[in-house]
Amino acid sequence: MKRHPLLVIGLLMLAPFTYAQTNFTEITPLPQVDSAGYFLQKGLTEKQNGRLLESYKNFMKALAYDENSLAINKELAIAYYNLRKYANARETYIKLVNLGEATAENYKKILDLSFQLKQKDDVLVYAGKLKEVEPNAKVAYYVGRVNYDMDNYGEAIKYLKQAIEEDPTNAQPPYLIAHSYADMMNYKLAVPYFKQAIALDTTQSYWIYELSLICYAMNNDKDALKYMLEAGEKGLRKDNDYYENLAIAYLNVGNLEKGVEMLNEILKRKPSDMNILNMIAEAYYYKGNFDKAIDYWDKILEYDKDNASSIYMIGMAYQKKGGKVNKEKGVKLCEIAIQKDPSLARYKQKKMMMGM
Question: Which of 54, 233, 257, 295 could potentially form a cystine with 46 if both were Cys, beta carbons 3.0 to 4.6 Å apart?
Fold first, then answer.
């Protein structure tokens, strides 16, 4: 068989060329790109252009190439914060501190985020660390608020008083001091701090309402009514609870007409509310308007004909009206009520002991 020498020569010529190319590729590698720096710079450009989400994505890519870069982690912490990923931002600021960036700025960020995320123990820890690197840092409010939330009122009051000195314009510290005293039922000491807080922030209608309730608890009915009305004027939502408390405030200062007016406002919304009907009946009864009192207790009986307490009080009202017929009718009704509820007999015994 005849051979083809040209093919052999061609193969011999090709072999060295292929070998040389292979060696060339191995000996001369392509230059490597600084991927971390590339994506960091790209993220900074996107950030400058206001594209926060895109900048965040690029910082994340940069972090994949250099997870301990201070520059990348700093930008990522800011990006997390701007995107409201507060838990991630907090963890990244803590990472920066652990990488050696134990600065006042980073401690302040961790403190703010820990406070916002209700990480109470960390608030106390990082408030202390911030004070170590920046002795003039204002941390008393954070420490006071956390102690208040932990029901540690002694420490809360201590630090909140310091917070007032640090920032006399902040209404929160005196408000929380007021609440601390109120929670301990020390109403007398609570009142001046409520007033101080309200003076600093006059928009807080609910604080005024709370002050009204404190005055009520102290039997200061005049001021209770005053602040209750002021709270309504300042925008407090006038729900059924508000009208009921306002009615009680009016009744306690002897203004029967306005008190009943408020209670009737509730009845428009809750026409069969037995408690409100009874309150109106009692208000009229103790003011000597026995016919009106009977009318409202009768309304209770329309909803519950066997309501022994209402039957008993109607009986008492008839006896109070005077006259032989009314007295006999009243006594009979009271006896019927006691048969339905024997516990009512104690009122009859009390009445006999008082000589009535």
Answer: 54
